[in-house]
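Hello forum,

I keep getting stuck at the same step: I have a sequence, I want structure tokens, and every attempt I make locally crashes halfway through. Rather than fight my setup again tonight, could one of you with a working pipeline run this one for me? It's a single chain of 161 residues.
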Amino acid sequence: MAYEPAYEIATKTLCPDPLAYQPVSARAVMLPGEIPPGVQLVTLPSGQRALAYVQPPTHTPPPAPCAAHPVPAWAKTTALLAPTVGFGIAAGGIGLSYAAPGLIAMSHALWAAGAFLVAAVIGVPALISGARRRVAAPTQITQNITATGLFGRANGTINHH
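Reply #2:
Ran it on my machine without issues. Output:
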């Protein structure tokens, strides 16, 4: 079984590779100890064996570890207060949902009280004036006004009968 490394084989077309496959008669014989570093004996897809420069697959280097920075105090405070505020808002919403029927009834009662006050402010004086008119006899008022000259001062008297 032939050993096949997991490397990519890079070929150049500009100049022929002296180590590439050549017929047996023209090929130089090289011992395994004479193979320079970075060169391996590989089997090509056609089944031929040749020496090739191998390059390991390029992997992206792992990211540099981040230096640990202390968490600012405001961030800790915000992180601790966020659930508290959220639970407070949730509790308020639940309380309002339980109080909604009572709040609606209270709203209706306040509207009724406001309507009663408006009716009292308008209605009571109207009732009082209507009651006075029925009890008293109609009153006649007579005015006598006199003036002397075109721009003279006017004098008048009012008589109630």
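Strands lie at 8-9, 39-43, 49-55, 141-147, 154-160. If your local run keeps crashing, start a new thread with the error log.
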